[in-house]
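RECORD TYPE: inverse folding
INPUT: structure tokens
STRUCTURE:
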């Protein structure tokens, strides 16, 4: 999971630089999303067991030169 976290976070940083000031949507599987969320929250790469990511749910991370923060986690439409 550490290698996965390194790749997904590197990709997100690259996209942040390439698309500064824009909104970018990434679509992935739950474990990849968990890995990115763990990084933003300062959890270990294998800390994703502490929360769920449901199929077709939406999680929102905001990134900038200042760092990153989690705005929404695992939201679904009823």
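DESIGNED SEQUENCE:
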């Amino acid at each position: 999971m550490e290698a996965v976290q390194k790749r997904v976070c590197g990709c997100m940083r690259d996209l942040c630089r390439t698309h500064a000031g824009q909104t970018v949507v990434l679509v992935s599987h739950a474990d990849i999303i968990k890995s990115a969320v763990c990084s933003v929250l300062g959890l270990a790469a294998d800390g994703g067991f502490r929360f769920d990511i449901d199929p077709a749910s939406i999680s929102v991370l905001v990134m900038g030169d200042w760092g990153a923060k989690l705005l929404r986690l695992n939201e679904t439409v009823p």
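NOTES: The mean pLDDT is 95.
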